[in-house]
Amino acid sequence: MIVKGLSHIHRKGIVHCDLKPENILVFPSLDKEIANYQLKIADFGLSKTKEEEVNVELWKSKPRGTPSYLSPEAFSGHIDAPMDIWALGCIVIEMLTGLPAWGESPLLIEELRYLVEHHELSPKKPQEIGFFCHDFLEKCFMKDPSKRWTADRLLGSDGYAVGFLGSFFSLMALPKRSWSRTVLENRKVVQSIDT
Questions:
Q1: Residue 54: which residues within 8 A CB-CB, separation 6 or more?
Q2: Is residue 31 part of a domain?
């Protein structure tokens, strides 16, 4: 549902710029045959439209969004739909592990800027995930935003979506401890750069 929502806003020329779990609302579904709940993307206060003029220098110095979900291009002032896909990947890791993709404590803008500009890192993917989950995250975390899959492309492959969901739900039986280890390893990378 999140990808479907992103597809809708991106086709309308809107980039959310602050996609994170706190901005995804859960409502009871009106059609219980499809799902018990529906998800809605909220808080468009930082969003950008295609018509909006971009002050690249301002956005380079102060990117829009929450640091732990910012894409590498956010630091160059390039604001477009692929940055929401990067944030989606961070959210998926958080859904899988129960912890933010870069660790429990929030990243500062300066920490993340250093990581993405000097180390070309993306959050580490949990090892226990299946092929489709891993591949989905790879497509979300492509460093080059022009190569990152669009929401429409992620939605357009039915086999891909079914495989991803199968991989995702098969993970629910795995111990949380193994997931926490992946997130802790991501946080250690950040801490080692701080020293």
A1: 48, 77, 79
A2: no
Q: Hey, CA dihedral for 176, 182, 183, 185, is it positive or negative?
A: positive
b/e burial code for range 83-96 (CB count within 10 A of at least 16 → b) = bbbbbbbbbbbbeb
Ramachandran region, residue 102 (left: φ > 0; alpha: ψ -120 to 50; beta: rest): alpha
Number of domain units in the chain: 1
Catalytic entry in 18, 43, 144, 158: 18
* Helix, strand or coil, per DSSP, at residue 15: strand
41 found inside a domain: no
Helices assigned H by DSSP within 2-145: 2-11, 56-61, 82-97, 109-114, 131-140
Catalytic status, residue 18: yes
How far apart are the C-alpha atoms of 140 and 112, rounded to whole Å?
17
In a domain, 171, yes or no: yes
Query: How big is the CA angle at 64 (ends 133 and 108), to the nearest 5 degrees?
Result: 75
pTM: 0.77
How far is C-alpha 168 from the geometric centre of its chain's CA atoms? 16
Report in angstroms the alpha-carbon separations of 131 from 88, 125, 166.
18, 11, 10
Per residue in 100-123, pLDDT (tens digit) is 887 766 667 777 777 767 666 788
- Looking up residue 154, the CATH number of its domain turns out to be 1.10.510.10
The closest alpha carbon to 107, from 116, 120, 118, 98, belongs to 116
